[in-house]
Amino acid sequence: MIRSVDHSDTAAVRTISVSAVVLSRPDGAVVTVRKVGTDRFMLPGGKWEAGESPLECAVREVDEELGVSLAPEALEPLGRFDTATANEPGFLLVSEVFAARVAGDPQPRAEIAEARWVTADELAGIAALPEDACEPWAPLLVRVARECLGSASVS
After folding, report:
1. At a CB cut-off of 8 Å and minimum separation 6, what does 16 contact?
2. CATH, residue 107
3. What is the pLDDT of residues 138-151, one digit of tens each?
4. pTM of the model
5. Is residue 137 part of a domain?
6. Chain center to CA of 9
């Protein structure tokens, strides 16, 4: 897990730290979200609050964004990923990514304009995209699809 990240404007690279969650159905489809006022689909999640662990953030954000309540022990850590941001040019995105199974159909809430299921076949196509030209997907989704979602199911 991330110990310390310099968020000051004087850092050589400005950084945004988030937790993200791969929520999958038994058929391997993964839910993606698009925030209000944006055009990129990404994994649900968001920025850490003061004193919050990446796992606590993941649980809170999935509930806020999709109305899905997850027990912390239901989340499997997938790792830390450093990518470009989807909507904040000039920033590095440092993401702690978790995976969990979900039942039902998560519904967009809070700042989420749209939730979209991506099938296992679509994920394979997303994994093949270059991260610097992957619209309408977020670079983090491309990286996680490439490195973690391959042919094996998550969770």
Report:
1. 7, 47, 85, 88, 91, 92, 93, 94
2. 3.90.79.10
3. 999 999 999 988 64
4. 0.87
5. yes
6. 24
pLDDT of residue 155: 44
Task: Tell me the pLDDT tens digit for each residue of 4-63.
Answer: 555 555 556 789 999 999 999 999 999 999 999 999 999 999 999 999 999 999 999 999
Task: Establish if 109 belongs to a structural domain.
Answer: yes
Q: H or E segment at 100?
A: strand 91-101
Q: Quick one: which of 108, 102, 117 has its CA closest to 31?
A: 117
**Kind plus residue range of the DSSP H or E element containing 4:** none
Note whether residue 9 is domain-resident: no
Count the Cβ atoms, other than its own, within 10 Å of residue 55. Answer: 17
Token readout for 32 is: 């993606």
